[in-house]
Amino acid sequence: MLYQDICLVFYRKRLERRLKKKYGCDRPLSLIMNGRDVGFFSMFFQVIGAVHFCKKYKHNLEVDFVGGPYFEEAVGKNWWEYYFSRKRFDFSGGRVLHDRVLNEWEQKDFSYYGRALASSVGHALVGVVDIQDAVLGKVVDFKNKNMDGYPVVGIHYRGTDKVSGKGKESDRVPYEDVFDYLEKDNGCLFFVATDEQAFLDRMESVFADRVISYNALRSNGSASIHRGGIGGISKYKAGEDALIDCLLLASCNKLVRTDSNLSYACRFFNPRQKCIIMGK
C-alpha cells in the first residue's frame, strides 16, 4: 500500500472517531443537511460520507439543499434531486428518531469523511444515491457518439479560482507540463474536462482532432463557474455539467488530472481506473 493510502486510512479513522463521538450514540437520529456554498463534489462527498456513516450507526439522513451555487427555483426546491433520485436514506429500522439539523462545520466533517472513504466503499454508495436517468442518458449518448471503439485518455484541468486569487487552494500546473506528458499517449483520443476555456483551446491547437469535450460551461477568465462570478449562466447546467464531466472522465481508459474534487470522485465511479496526478 502506498504511503498516501496509509495516511488516508488513519485520517478516515480519526474523522470517524470524531463523528462517532457526536452522533454514534444509541439514540436514533435523523440527520438533516441543508447544504453549503461550495463546489458540487464537495457536497457530493458530504452526502456520500453521511450515507455511509448513517448506515453504519443506524441513523436516517435527509438531504435538503435549498440555495447555493446550483439552486434554480424553476427547476425544483431541492437541488440535490436535480441530479440524484434519493434524498432520504432510512437506516433506523423504524425506531423513534430525533431530528438534528447539521451546521456548516458538521457538514464539512462529513465531506472530509466521504472524500476519505475507500474507493470500493464509495463505488457501492454511488448506487445508493442513484443518479437521475436523464443525466445518465446524456452520458451514454455522448459516449456512443464520440468515445466507443477508441482508447480514450481523460484529462481534467482545474483552473480559475482553484489556482488564483484569495481563495487559492493549489498551485497552477503549466499547460505545457500536461502536453509533455500526453505526448506519450500515441493513438489515443483525449477527453478534456476543464473549467478554463483557454486550456481546451490550447489542447485543440496542440492535438487537433484527437480532442473531444462535452459542451459544458467554461470560464474565459479567472472567475469560477460555480461561485457566481459569471452572470447569466444556468446554475442547474453548471451542476449537471460537473457530474457529466466526472462520469465521462471515469469511463476513460486512463485519467490525467490536476488537484480537484471532481476528478478525485472518479475513483468512486471507476475504482480500477489508472490515474496520473499532475502537480506537486
Keywords:
280 residues, alpha/beta, Rossmann fold, 2 domains, 4-stranded mixed sheet, 11 helices, 9 strands, 13% strand, globular
Walk me through this protein's architecture:
The protein contains eleven helices and nine strands. Helix 1 packs antiparallel against helix 4 and helix 6 crosses helix 9. The protein has 280 residues and is an alpha/beta fold. The relative contact order is 0.15. The strands form two sheets. It has a five-stranded parallel β-sheet, sandwiched between helices. A four-stranded mixed β-sheet has the order 3-2-1-4, with helices on one face. It starts with a helix and ends with a strand. It folds into two domains: 127 residues, no CATH class; 145 residues, Rossmann fold (3-Layer(aba) Sandwich). 44% of the residues lie in helices and 13% in strands.
| Strand order within the widest beta sheet | 7-6-5-8-9
Distance between the termini: 20 Å
Helix content: 40-55%
Q: What number of domains?
A: 2
Give the oligomeric state.
Answer: single chain
Q: So, CATH architecture of the largest domain?
A: 3-Layer(aba) Sandwich
Radius of gyration: 19 Å
Largest sheet: 5 strands, parallel
CATH C-level class of the largest domain = Alpha Beta
Question: Structural class per helix/strand content?
Answer: alpha/beta
Shape: globular
Number of strands: 9
* Low-pLDDT residue spans: none
Q: How do the helices and strands follow one another from N- to C-terminus?
A: HEHEHEEHHHEHEHEHEHHE
Topology-level CATH name of the largest domain: Rossmann fold
Mean pLDDT: 90
* Number of continuous helical runs: 11
What portion of residues belong to β-strands?
5-15%
